[in-house]
Amino acid sequence: MNSTVFVLVHGAWHGSGHWAATQRALVGLGSASVAVDLPGHGFDAPLPTGYLLPGQPGLATERSRLATVTMDECAEAVVETLRRVRHHRSVVLVGHSAGGGPLSLAAEKAPRLVDRMVYLTAFVPGGRPRFLDYLGSPENAAALGQGLNLGDPAALGAVRINPISADPAYVEELRQTHYHDTPVDRFDRWRSVLSPDLPLAIPASPVTLTAERWGGIPRTFLRCADDRALTPAVQDLMIAEADAAFPGRPFTVHTLPGGHSPFAARPDELAAALVS
């Protein structure tokens, strides 16, 4: 056993349970881990009232009960977990996709609680402060998933998808975007436990970083070579812009094969990359 603990922060619409296979693999490699549920995610996430009803009435128009969730609240959920595990000699904070925002703000708030940050194809606000600034960039124009969002995010207060849609074309777009290299016979189980709402604050709120706090923590970026939700080109852009803004401690970069969700497609490889 080693004395490293990994604190795992999920991305949009996911929850702590999606890390379970990776956590089992980490234990096999001698490392402890704990997965965080960000506000509005996980099995306790509030759902739109019609989400589980026949026909899903009002799904595209009902304002989200997560509309008031703030980026600061999401970061505080991460900081609270970091405080609980600080007795380990080494704390590695890992974030996936949209989880890079709360991860970054948590590290900025409490840099002494983090020994290394790992961005798993995740938003890095080093160059541009909002995730939306990168999602809408020309480098991400080839990304899939534009047809997944329901309604008007500003009116809903959330970026809403429909993981349990009965429309085969919609389901296939969801699979191709996030899980194209996950075994097909497991995909329906994975999508069934996604939450429909991502609080709008997570992609839309600016995250301000400083060289003295966030910039002083060693950081690694795990690229996903065939990512269809956050393209390799925009991953590289985030790395380059963060390194330019914080040149004192540039990213260490490693590339993983496959798509946006290695915790589903190849958790053993992901765990090995984290431990290394």
TrEMBL record:
Give one GO term, molecular function aspect: hydrolase activity
Which species is the source of this protein?
Actinoallomurus acaciae
Known Gene3D superfamilies for this protein? alpha/beta hydrolase
Give the matching Pfam families: Abhydrolase_6
Would I find Disulfide bond among this entry's keywords? Answer: no
**PANTHER family recorded for this chain?**
AB HYDROLASE-1 DOMAIN-CONTAINING PROTEIN-RELATED, ESTERASE_LIPASE_THIOESTERASE DOMAIN-CONTAINING PROTEIN
Q: Does the keyword Protein biosynthesis apply?
A: no
Q: Which UniProt keywords apply?
A: Hydrolase
User: What residue stretches are annotated with the AB hydrolase-1 domain?
Assistant: 6-273
Q: What is this protein called?
A: Alpha/beta fold hydrolase
